[in-house]
Amino acid sequence: MVEERNPLIRFVNSMYSLIDGPVTFFREKIVEPNQEKYPYYHQKFRRVAGIDECYTDDYVCKFEAQHQFLRDRSVDCEILSILRQRYEHCNTEDLNNRGEEKCEAIYEVYKDAAGAWFAKYGDLGPMPDVLFAFTKQQHRMIWERRHGPVGSGMKEDEFKVEDPDAPRKKP
């Protein structure tokens, strides 16, 4: 290494090594050797029973289902955030081609994911509960069975037969 003759550069280098030395020592001697023994990163939790599989008086099962729901929600929120960032990055990458076909595929994936997120977690409030989410899912399934997919309009009654002799009401 070439020795610096400028006193200002020597001073800056010495201050850098004074601050960086203990950090580098801690990282190389303590953190990296213990990473193999203690796998703190990317911890995988086992899947637990959902709220629909819990008995009404099994509070431990309900507690585990609530925490599983919150973990799933945080993962889904992060996925949605990453998709949003990719779309925004695509739009700001080339300002001349803004709004063209280049980013449409990314936007469609983001829009589908956002719709799925809202269908599952939307309207639950700031402190979502697994039981409310399950009830919301049940209500949505009942609605779709009776009226068709949400957002497609209400389907006509297939079995409704009008009596031709019945008097018609004026509109």
Automatic annotation (TrEMBL):
<protein>
    <recommendedName>
        <fullName>NADH dehydrogenase [ubiquinone] 1 beta subcomplex subunit 10</fullName>
    </recommendedName>
</protein>
<comment type="similarity">
    <text>Belongs to the complex I NDUFB10 subunit family.</text>
</comment>
<keyword id="KW-0472">Membrane</keyword>
<keyword id="KW-0496">Mitochondrion</keyword>
<dbReference type="GO" id="GO:0045271">
    <property type="term" value="C:respiratory chain complex I"/>
</dbReference>
<dbReference type="GO" id="GO:0005743">
    <property type="term" value="C:mitochondrial inner membrane"/>
</dbReference>
<dbReference type="InterPro" id="IPR039993">
    <property type="entry name" value="NDUFB10"/>
</dbReference>
<keyword id="KW-0813">Transport</keyword>
<keyword id="KW-0249">Electron transport</keyword>
<dbReference type="Pfam" id="PF10249">
    <property type="entry name" value="NDUFB10"/>
</dbReference>
<dbReference type="InterPro" id="IPR019377">
    <property type="entry name" value="NADH_UbQ_OxRdtase_su10"/>
</dbReference>
<keyword id="KW-0679">Respiratory chain</keyword>
<keyword id="KW-0999">Mitochondrion inner membrane</keyword>
